[in-house]
């Protein structure tokens, strides 16, 4: 069976075509505008890349923000279930999934079969999200892709006293004016983000293996900070930003 999954984020959309357990192709695009239009563009992109026709796709599921607005989809599973299903398929020992995207984070726990057991969410404060990291990268006048690696060179001389994004920005400005090394400031930012996520995770039992998904999982600094606070290794998929789309495609295949 050939299925497709589409995952709509706050700032990006990803799509993926799955032939049983084999990924045929995938794409991730930044978008603005309507959810259904963005989903259609991403779906058309992977169809073109794969050389397949729409009639050759047995089922399409859409997940993510405004998933119900994707009217051409055959199903609309939640982001939580989609991420857990794909993470468990990629790492069969997965028991906890930390999903961090542009606007928030989720800590998800699953059982040995990859079924969602419980979850907590942080989508109210930007300090747990990729948008805050983009803001920090702008303040540092650096590409966002470089802030994670640079933070690992820190000598740990800077600590943020707040995890609130608004107040943290003021602290960062003060550290910049003080002449603190960029690496130290950036590690403090990543450490504060990880601390906030781990604090939220205390409402459920975090168990290894831990899988880190979502666009922020590409940031090595956040991954290392999470590892430090959790005390467990962190598994990261090769393409963490398409895990939601993969999970949707898996659920489409498993649907009755």
Describe this protein with a few key phrases:
256 residues, alpha/beta, Nucleotidyltransferase, domain 5, 2 domains, five-stranded mixed sheet, four-stranded mixed sheet, 41% helix
Strand % is 15-25%
The CATH architecture of the largest domain comes to 2-Layer Sandwich
Average pLDDT score: 92
The tally of domains stands at 2
Under CATH, the homologous superfamily of the largest domain reads: ATPase, nucleotide binding domain
Rough outline: globular
User: Count the strands?
Assistant: 9
Overview of the molecule:
- With 256 residues, the protein is an alpha/beta fold.
- Strands 7-6-5-8-9 form a five-stranded mixed sheet. The chain has a four-stranded mixed sheet with strand order 3-2-1-4.
- Helix 4 crosses helix 6.
- The longest helix is centred in the C-terminal third of the chain and has 20 residues.
- The two termini are 12 Å apart.
- The model has no long low-confidence stretch (mean pLDDT 92).
Draw up the topology in text:
Layout: E1 2-8, E2 12-19, E3 22-30, H1 35-50, E4 59-64, H2 79-90, E5 96-100, E6 105-110, E7 116-122, H3 130-140, H4 144-151, H5 165-178, H6 182-201, E8 210-213, H7 220-230, E9 234-235, H8 243-254
Parallel strand pairs: 1-4, 5-8, 8-9
Antiparallel strand pairs: 1-2, 2-3, 5-6, 6-7
Helix pairs in contact: 2-8, 3-5, 4-6, 6-7
